[in-house]
Design goal:
By secondary structure, the chain is an alpha/beta fold. It contains 16 helices and 11 strands. The protein has a 5-stranded parallel β-sheet. A 4-stranded parallel β-sheet has the order 4-3-5-6, sandwiched between helices. The longest helix has 16 residues, at about 220-235. The structure holds iron/sulfur cluster (SF4). Belongs to the HypD family. Keywords: Iron, Metal-binding.
């Protein structure tokens, strides 16, 4: 048996599930990672859990949490002459208040899909006559590669490259969630983000709210054993931060990756879709790297903009409603024609529920 197979084993999953069913108190856990959302829905874990255990999805998809105002800003930047917007493909369909980047491209704006920031930098190096802006979307997982790319642009004197940073960090969002949604008893912490930040930031949240969580991998056994851990800590009335993903996450995180983030970025307030402004939850460029900040370079400023009429992404992202409780779900809002961002990315809550059914 491949050592990873045990994390997919139906027999081991059944044994853990039997232990989970021994706990009879009501418990609500939230996962804050889009990959967990998909794993939980695709594997059918939700339908196997006893009725007293409720699962809700949080703001785990970076595309989903990008505010409408920031989408508008990216579209506005695309309309500046001689600018090329480079971005991950997911961002093309995310709606701004009037259109999206795909529409902007069809109207002749220069928008290129890239696989990562280094591709954007290469494009800038190959096209010195064009100002290339990379859209910095993502959490602590993607921020280090963007930081490394900005450092490289500085070292190589590539001046026609800049980043429109919409990066966000997870711990302040946990703080905001616990402040607004008292139903959350504990978290499944994001596996990928935790490889970078380690366990300490979660301990700060634990100290403030006395709500703990478990860092988990993405296979069914990972997720079920994380739920079992959560139940045990609730029963013992001892919330804590547990690292259940030792094969990928070190308690101290990835120090090199954090050094890249801390050298290039500084935390700043950020607007989250449907959640408003969360203090110190975004990453802007610091000091000597500010010249690579597209907002500074082109005088771009985000404006607040309400979500599309009828779209309840804000409540979905905070776990206040299930995606299918949105009246637009599956009717006027589908992955082919998304109204809100949670239906755009495959890891968005609405898209995952649409694909894997009302489980
Ligand atoms: Fe927004 Fe569509 Fe989800 Fe409703 S179903 S919350 S409109 S993304």
């Amino acid at each position: 048996m491949n050592w990873l197979d045990e994390f997919k084993s139906p027999e081991i999953s059944q044994k853990i599930l039997a232990q989970i069913k021994e706990f009879d108190f009501p418990y609500t856990f939230m996962e804050v990672c889009g990959t967990h959302t998909v794993s939980i829905l695709r594997s059918g874990i939700r339908s196997l859990l006893p009725k007293n255990i409720k699962h809700i999805s949080g703001p785990g998809c970076p595309v989903c949490v990008t505010s409408q105002g920031d989408c508008d800003l990216a579209i506005l930047a695309a309309s500046i002459p001689n600018i090329c917007i480079t971005t991950f493909g997911d961002m093309l369909k995310v709606p701004g208040s009037k259109s999206n980047l795909a529409q902007a491209r069809s109207e002749g704006k220069h928008v290129e899909v890239v696989y990562g920031p280094l591709d954007a930098l290469k494009y800038a190096a190959d096209h010195p006559e064009t100002e290339v802006i990379f859209l910095g979307i993502g959490f602590e997982t993607t921020a280090p590669t963007v930081a490394a790319t900005i450092k490289k642009a500085k070292e190589q004197n590539i001046h026609n490259f800049s980043v429109l940073s919409f990066h966000k960090i997870v711990p302040p969002a946990l703080d905001a969630l616990l402040s607004t949604n008292p139903k959350i008893d504990g978290f499944i912490y994001p596996g990928h983000v935790s490889t970078v930040i380690g366990t300490k930031p979660y301990k700060d949240v634990l100290r403030k709210f006395n709500k703990g969580g478990v860092i988990a991998g993405f296979e069914p056994v990972d997720i079920l054993s994380a739920i079992l851990e959560l139940l045990k800590m609730q029963k013992d009335n001892q919330p804590k931060v547990v690292n259940n993903y030792h094969r990928a996450v070190k308690d101290e995180g990835n120090i090199n990756a954090m050094n890249f983030i801390n050298e290039v970025f500084v935390t700043e307030d950020a607007e989250w879709r449907g959640m408003g402004t969360i203090p110190n939850s975004g990453l802007g460029l610091r000091g000597e790297y500010k010249k690579f900040c597209a907002k500074t370079k082109f005088g771009l400023k985000s404006k607040k903009s309400p979500d599309p009429p009828g779209c309840r992404c804000g409540e979905v992202l905070q776990g206040l409603i299930e995606p299918y409780e949105c009246p637009l779900f599956g009717k006027v809002c589908t992955p082919i024609k998304p109204v809100g961002p949670c239906m755009v990315s495959t890891e968005g809550s609405c898209a995952a529920h649409y694909k894997y059914g009302k489980l």
